C-alpha cells in the first residue's frame, strides 16, 4: 500500500488539451455534409478513422489550419457513422462527440446519426451537434458466409471442405440511467471452420458418400436450431464482455468482467495498457477502475487558472495474467501544464493468485514516466521504464523465478548484477517546416525489461517488442521526409542497432554485430505537372549485418549479410467518369527469413453500382522451399448493399494464395503490411477456394 500512496502523492502530471467537434449541413441534392474538427494545432498529423474508412486501413488525413484540423465528408441521408481520431499515431476519442458507443476495447467511438444531427441543428446557423443522449444502444458485428475449398492431392485438385461460417457478436451499450453506464457483448456464434457440410478428413474416416450425407442432414438444423448449427452443435454462445459503473462529479468507477477489455492508456510514445488486454478470459477475472470525475477536473483547472489539466486513475484487478488468475494494479496520473508540456507517470504491480498476497508480495513493479514538450518548432517526446522483480515462494522454502505474463523475457532474475537489464527508454525529437519533417530518436531495452498489461506473443501480437525493441538492444534512427518541390516528397529512414550488454540476453549470435537498416521512399503527385489526379509512391527496406554469424536468408537459399527485406510501388488514380472513378495498382516484394520470396501484383478499382473489385497474382521465387507450383492468383468483389447498417456483400476466388483478412477480421479487405501481403506467402499454398459472404457492422 505504501507504494500506491507514494505513487499517488509524488506525481503531478499531464494530459493533452485537445478537443474536437462535428457539424452537419444538408445539401440541395439531399445529401449531408459532415465536418470533423480537431482543435489541436500542435499535432503533426491527424487522421479520421471510422467504419466509413474501414477504420485504420483507409483512415483519411485531416487538413491542418490555424486553429486545428478539418475533414469534410459528404454522405447520403440516413447514414450512421462511428469514428475516432488518430493524432500523431495515437487513437484519440472525440470528447465533444455528438454521441458515443463502446468500442469493445475499453474505450468509446464517436457516433454520428446524420438525420438526428440535421434535425437538431435545423434552427442553428452553425449546424452544431446536439447534446449527448443517455440510452442503451444495440450494435452488432456479424458475418455469414459459405466456402468451398479444394486441395492439391497427387497432382490433382480434390474436394477438401465445404461449409457455412457464422460469426455474430451482439452488443448493448450506453447509459441505463444518466450516471450508470453499461456494456454487454454476447458472442452468439463463432464458427469459421467451413467444414460442416463436408470435410476430407471425415470422408477418409467414414467414406465420402457418408460424409456428404451427414452434412446434408445437418443442414436441416438451419431452420430448426440455427444458432446451434452456426456453432457446430457446441455450446459456444456466451457472455463475452460485461462492464458497468457509476459516474459522479468527483469520482467515476467502472468495472469489467471476463473478455471485457481494460480501458487503454497511452503514455507518450508507449501504449502502456493494451486495448486488447482482457479482464479475465478464463471467466474468473475482472477489474475495477477509479478515476477523477468532471467536477474534480474542473476544480483543479479552476484553482490553477486553467494552467493545469489533471487526470488520475487507480485500477486494482485480477487481470495481471490476462486469464483472470493473478492479482495486480495499474495506476497513473497525467496532466498538461500551460498547454504545451505533458507528463505522465504510471505504476503497475503484479501480485500472487490469492487475495492475502495483494499488496504484500509483489512479483513485478513497473515505473513508467513520459514527457512531451512543445518547444517552439521542436517537439520532444520521451519515455522511461524501470522494473523491479520478485520471486515466487513455494511451501518447501525454495523459490522459483518469476515469468511476466504475455512477455518475451521468460524467467527473470530478481537480483541482476546489472540493473540496466531492468530498464528501457525512448526519446524522439521532432522538427517540421515547409521543406522537411524530421525525427531524431533513440531507444534501448535491457535484457529483462518488460511492461505489464501489454501483449507479446498472445494472439500473434508483438506490442512490447514493437515499442521497446528487442531484448538487450539499443537503436538510434533518423526519420526524414523532404519536400523539394510541391509534387514530390522523398523519405530516408535509417537506423543503427547493436547489443546493449554483451553478458546478457540478445538475439544477435555475435555480440559484436551491428545492424544497419535503411528505408528510402518517395511520393510523386502528378496533378501539378501532368494535370492528372494520380499519385505514384514507393519504398524499399534494406538491412546489413556486420557479422557473418548474424547473416539472414532474405529470399535466398544461403544466408547473407545484406538483404532487401521488402519493397513496393503503388499507383493510384482518380478518373472523371462513372465507369472506373478510382483505381489502385501496386506491386509488393517480400523476402522473409524463412527462405522464401513472394512477388505480388494487385489492382483495386471502384466500378459502377458501387462495386469494389480486386484482382491480383503472386509468384514465389528463389529458396529451397519452392515446389512445382509457385504461381497464385485471386479475384474478388464487394458491394455495400445497405448504408445505414453497413451491410457488405462479397465474393472471392483464391488459388495458391490468400490475400484477404481472416473471416473473423472482415474478409472483404486485403490483409496488407505496407504494400506486401501480411503472412500470405504460404496461405492457401496448393489450395483454392470460392467464397460468398455478407457482413454487418452497425
Summarize the structure.
The chain has 698 residues and is mainly beta. It is built from eight helices and 43 strands. It has a 27-stranded antiparallel β-sheet that branches.
Describe the structure.
The protein is mainly beta. Helices cover 8% and strands 50% of the residues. The chain is globular. The protein starts with a helix and ends with a strand. Residues 1-20 and 125-132 have low confidence and may be disordered.
Strand and helix map with partners:
Blueprint: H1 2-10, E1 19-26, E2 32-39, E3 46-50, E4 60-61, E5 63-64, E6 69-75, E7 80-87, E8 90-92, E9 99-102, E10 108-113, H2 114-120, E11 136-153, E12 156-177, E13 180-191, E14 198-199, H3 200-206, H4 208-218, H5 221-224, H6 226-230, E15 238-247, E16 251-258, E17 265-267, E18 270-273, E19 286-292, H7 294-303, E20 308-317, E21 328-337, E22 341-350, E23 364-375, E24 378-389, E25 391-393, E26 399-401, E27 423-432, E28 436-445, H8 463-468, E29 473-485, E30 488-492, E31 495-499, E32 514-518, E33 520-525, E34 534-545, E35 562-574, E36 582-592, E37 596-607, E38 611-621, E39 631-642, E40 647-655, E41 672-673, E42 676-677, E43 687-697
| General form | globular
Please work out how many helical segments DSSP would assign: 8
Helical amount: under 10%
The rounded distance between the terminal residues' Cα atoms is: 44 Å
**Uncertain ranges:** 1-20, 125-132
Percent of residues in beta strands? over 45%
| Gyration radius, rounded | 27 Å
Main sheet: strands, sense, barrel? 27 strands, antiparallel
How many strands in all?
Answer: 43
Mean pLDDT: 87
By secondary-structure content and strand pairing, the structural class works out as mainly beta
Amino acid at each position: 500500500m505504501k507504494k500506491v500512496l507514494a505513487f499517488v502523492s509524488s506525481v503531478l502530471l499531464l494530459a493533452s488539451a485537445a478537443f474536437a467537434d462535428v457539424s452537419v449541413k444538408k445539401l440541395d441534392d439531399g445529401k449531408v455534409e459532415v465536418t470533423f474538427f480537431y482543435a489541436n494545432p500542435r499535432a503533426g498529423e491527424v487522421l479520421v478513422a471510422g467504419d466509413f474508412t474501414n477504420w485504420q486501413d483507409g483512415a483519411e488525413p485531416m487538413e491542418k489550419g490555424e486553429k486545428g484540423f478539418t475533414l469534410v465528408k459528404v454522405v447520403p441521408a440516413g447514414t450512421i457513422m462511428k469514428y475516432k481520431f488518430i493524432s500523431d499515431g495515437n487513437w484519440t476519442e472525440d470528447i465533444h462527440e455528438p454521441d458515443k458507443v463502446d468500442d469493445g476495447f475499453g474505450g468509446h467511438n464517436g457516433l454520428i446519426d446524420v438525420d438526428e444531427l440535421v434535425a437538431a441543428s435545423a434552427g442553428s446557423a452553425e449546424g452544431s451537434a446536439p447534446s449527448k443522449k443517455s440510452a442503451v444502444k444495440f450494435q452488432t458485428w456479424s458475418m455469414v458466409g459459405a466456402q468451398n475449398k479444394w486441395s492439391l492431392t497427387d497432382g490433382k485438385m480434390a474436394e477438401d471442405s465445404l461449409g457455412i461460417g457464422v460469426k455474430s457478436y451482439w452488443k448493448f451499450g450506453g447509459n441505463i440511467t444518466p450516471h450508470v453506464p453499461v456494456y454487454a457483448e454476447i458472442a452468439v456464434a463463432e464458427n469459421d471452420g467451413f467444414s460442416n457440410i463436408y470435410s476430407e478428413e471425415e470422408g477418409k474416416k467414414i467414406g465420402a458418400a457418408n460424409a456428404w450425407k451427414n452434412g446434408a442432414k445437418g443442414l436441416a438444423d438451419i431452420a430448426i436450431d440455427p444458432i446451434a448449427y452456426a456453432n457446430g452443435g457446441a455450446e459456444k454462445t456466451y457472455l463475452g464482455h460485461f462492464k458497468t459503473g457509476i459516474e459522479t462529479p468527483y469520482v467515476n468507477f467502472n468495472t469489467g468482467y471476463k473478455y471485457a477489455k481494460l480501458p487503454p492508456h497511452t503514455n507518450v510514445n508507449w501504449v502502456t495498457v493494451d486495448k486488447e488486454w482482457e479482464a479475465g478470459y478464463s471467466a474468473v477475472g475482472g477489474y475495477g477502475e477509479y478515476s477523477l470525475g468532471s467536477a474534480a477536473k474542473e476544480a483543479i483547472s479552476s484553482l490553477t487558472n486553467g494552467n493545469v489539466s489533471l487526470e488520475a486513475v487507480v485500477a486494482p484487478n485480477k487481470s495481471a495474467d490476462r486469464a483472470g488468475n493473478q492479482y495486480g494494479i495499474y495506476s497513473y496520473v497525467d496532466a498538461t501544464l500551460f498547454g504545451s508540456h505533458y507528463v505522465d507517470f504510471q505504476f503497475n504491480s503484479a501480485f500472487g493468485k490469492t487475495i492475502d498476497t495483494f499488496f504484500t508480495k509483489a512479483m513485478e513493479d513497473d515505473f513508467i514516466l513520459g514527457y512531451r514538450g512543445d518547444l517552439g518548432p521542436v517537439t520532444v517526446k520521451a519515455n522511461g521504464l524501470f522494473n523491479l522483480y520478485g520471486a515466487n515462494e513455494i511451501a518447501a522454502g525454495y523459490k522459483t523465478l518469476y515469468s511476466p505474463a504475455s512477455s518475451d523475457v521468460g524467467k527473470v532474475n530478481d537480483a541482476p548484477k546489472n540493473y540496466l537489464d531492468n530498464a528501457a527508454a525512448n526519446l524522439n525529437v521532432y522538427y517540421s517546416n515547409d521543406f522537411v519533417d524530421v525525427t531524431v530518436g533513440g531507444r534501448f531495452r535491457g535484457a529483462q525489461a518488460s511492461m505489464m498489461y501489454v501483449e507479446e506473443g498472445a494472439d500473434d501480437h508483438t506490442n512490447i517488442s514493437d515499442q521497446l525493441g528487442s531484448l538487450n538492444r539499443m537503436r538510434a534512427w533518423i526519420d526524414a521526409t523532404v519536400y523539394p518541390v510541391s509534387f514530390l516528397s522523398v523519405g530516408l529512414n535509417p537506423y543503427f542497432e547493436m547489443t546493449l550488454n554483451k553478458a546478457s540476453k540478445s538475439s544477435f549470435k555475435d555480440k559484436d554485430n551491428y545492424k544497419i537498416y535503411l528505408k528510402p521512399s518517395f511520393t510523386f503527385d502528378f496533378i501539378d505537372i501532368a494535370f492528372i489526379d494520380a499519385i505514384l509512391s514507393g519504398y524499399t527496406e534494406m538491412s546489413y549485418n556486420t557479422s557473418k554469424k548474424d547473416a539472414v536468408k532474405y529470399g535466398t537459399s544461403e544466408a547473407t549479410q545484406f538483404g532487401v527485406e521488402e519493397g513496393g510501388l503503388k499507383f493510384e488514380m482518380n478518373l472523371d467518369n462513372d465507369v472506373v472513378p478510382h483505381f489502385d495498382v501496386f506491386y509488393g516484394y517480400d523476402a522473409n527469413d524463412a527462405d522464401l520470396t513472394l512477388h505480388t501484383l494487385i489492382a483495386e478499382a471502384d466500378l459502377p453500382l458501387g462495386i469494389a473489385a480486386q484482382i491480383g497474382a503472386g509468384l514465389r521465387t528463389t529458396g529451397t522451399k519452392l515446389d512445382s507450383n509457385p504461381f497464385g492468383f485471386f479475384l474478388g468483389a464487394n458491394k455495400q448493399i445497405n448504408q445505414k447498417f453497413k451491410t457488405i456483400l462479397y465474393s472471392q476466388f483464391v488459388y495458391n494464395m490468400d490475400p484477404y483478412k481472416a473471416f473473423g477480421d472482415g474478409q472483404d479487405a486485403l490483409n496488407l503490411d505496407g504494400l506486401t501481403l501480411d503472412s500470405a506467402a504460404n496461405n492457401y499454398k496448393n489450395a483454392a477456394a470460392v467464397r460468398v459472404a455478407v457482413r454487418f457492422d452497425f
